[in-house]
Amino acid sequence: MARAVEPSRTGGQASVELLAALPALFLAAAIAVQLLLVGYSLSIADGAAEAGALAGAAGRSAAPAARAALPGWARGRSRVSAEGGRVRVEVRPPAPFAALSEALTVSSDAWSRPAWGSG
């Protein structure tokens, strides 16, 4: 006596669970991308601050050298200050909201001594 096979009812449940999990997966992906953007912004701020400090040590103006070391998209999202051998670069990473971008601002400092004969 063969028994009739009932259709599986778990297929519909799995679809509903996947649909319910999609917002959480999207949020996790968005957070991961935002963290990568913050890390990249810190990396370029570090490089720009170092470039400014090296320019200052060579007797050139540090702030323009630091700005020139930033990629184009970051120049409008950054603040550069150079005073007394200290170069500070602040970069606001890209974010979906301006307030979030402000809150995630990263900064990097570099120092150098003035070039011989300039002080």
Description:
By secondary structure, the chain is α+β, with helices and mostly antiparallel strands. 55% of the residues lie in helices and 15% in strands. Strands 1-2-3 form a 3-stranded antiparallel sheet, with helices on one face. α1 runs antiparallel to α2. The mean pLDDT is 90.
Offer a few descriptive terms.
15% strand; 119 residues; 4 helices; single chain; 3-stranded antiparallel beta sheet; alpha+beta
Short description:
The protein is built from four helices and three strands; from the N terminus they run αααββαβ.
Radius of gyration: 26 Å
First-residue to last-residue Cα separation: 102 Å
For the sheet with most strands, the description reads:
3 strands, antiparallel
Q: Work out the helix count.
A: 4
Helix content: 55-70%
Question: What strand line-up does the widest sheet have?
Answer: 1-2-3
- What integer is the average pLDDT? 90
Layout of strands and helices, then pairs:
Blueprint: H1 10-57, H2 62-69, H3 72-75, E1 78-83, E2 86-91, H4 98-103, E3 106-111
Antiparallel strand pairs: 1-2, 2-3
